[in-house]
Amino acid sequence: MKKRPVSRLSIIARYVTLASVIFVVLIGVDIFLGNREKIVYIPPEPLVVVELPQKGSVSKRGIFPSTIQAKDLVPVIPLVGGTIQSFDVQVGQMVQKGEVLATIDSEPFIQQTKQAEAAYLASESTFSRVASLYQNKATTEQSYDQAKAQRDAAKAQYELASLQLSYATVTAPVTGSILMKSSSVGSMAGAQQPIAVIADLTRLVVKVEVPETYYSVFWKGQETLRIEITNPAWDKPIPARLLTIDPFIHSDSKTFSLECLVEHGEALVRPGMSVMVGITYSEEEAIPRMAQSIRKSDGSWYVYHPETQRVEYVQTAVELEDDWFFKVPEAYAESLFVVDGQHMVFDNQKVRIEGEGL
Q: Nearest Cα to 208, choosing from 177, 263, 253?
């Protein structure tokens, strides 16, 4: 028996019926979901830490690199030349003014002194004889003057030879420590050529090159400048005292120089050390201050208002600040500052305070 062919109209009717069923189902689902209670996610309020300003000091200062130097470097220069026969001092040794440091071969100077002495004695004898004749009017005044001049010249030569002989013994010109030896036994010492350098290590200085922008405040406040010297190897800064400030600006570098005397650092400080010199030129004490770390990159900060539980964005100039603290403006001296969490809030946002009930 043959199947009866499905008519085209029948197929269309089936699709219409299926579409109607799907439509009814979708409407039912929409009605069901629309009657359910909607769930809305509300993020928690940011958690922040707040503090009141604390009293303390805030200062303005400049920090400059420098090197420790001896206040006075004294070269030991032999005044005569010759072979060094002894040179027993060592670098770092403490010596007293007048102490023997080295000796130079003195034989040439001994012979020179003997020769000058003989000439002087001979001229002295001649002068005595001529003077006796002159008193008895047995010779002329010219002969007397000539003999006297020869005697005086021979005496001067003798004294000069004796002085040069004494110079063969080289002594310390000042009290201090031997910083350098540039000669040794057997070497030739020459006049005007130093064989050692002495410095007083109890008088050390730093010479600082400062940009000209500081000149006015440094010059006017010379009596109140507070100077400290630091080095990574030291436990604490060492104080220094201002000695001099240049009365002019160096035109090539646009800087001026100042010299400071290191105080109370003899055990730690040595010439040649690299140091940083901090110069405080303005300072206020017992003022409300906050740490620089609470400020954002644009210099702003946030304060918290308990009555509204909201934060306020504040950006205003500060009167005084240093690397660690800034002076709180008078209008915010009693405000609560956001010290942690300030990077996650915005102006007028409601926040929670750490430690309060959540």
A: 253
- Rounded CA-CA distance 322/210 in Å is 18
282 CB neighbour count, 10 Å cutoff:
15
Euclidean distance between CA atoms 191 and 109, whole angstroms: 14
Q: Which two tokens stand for residue 341?
A: 């969490």
Is CATH 2.40.50.100 correct for 74-105+168-199? yes
For the chain, domain boundaries: 47-56+285-353, 62-71+200-284, 74-105+168-199, 108-167
Q: Does domain 108-167 fall into CATH 1.10.10.10?
A: no
What's the length of the chain?
Answer: 358
Strand residues in the chain grouped as ranges (E): 47-51, 54-70, 73-76, 82-87, 94-95, 100-104, 169-171, 176-181, 188-189, 196-199, 204-211, 226-230, 238-245, 255-262, 274-291, 301-305, 310-314, 325-327, 336-340, 352-353
Backbone angles phi, psi at 286, to 5 degrees: 55, 45
Average pLDDT along the chain, 358 residues, taken 10 residues at a time: 58 71 72 65 86 93 92 90 92 92 93 94 92 88 91 94 92 91 89 88 92 93 92 91 94 94 82 92 92 92 96 92 91 95 93 74
Q: What's the predicted TM-score (pTM) here? A: 0.60
Minimal CA–CA distance to 62: which of 326, 325, 323? 323
Q: What is the dihedral of CA 177, 182, 184, 187, to 10 degrees?
A: -150
**The CATH number of the domain covering residues in 62-71+200-284:** 2.40.30.170
Based on the number of CB atoms within 10 Å of its own CB, is 105 exposed (0-12), middle (13-18) or buried (19 or more)? middle
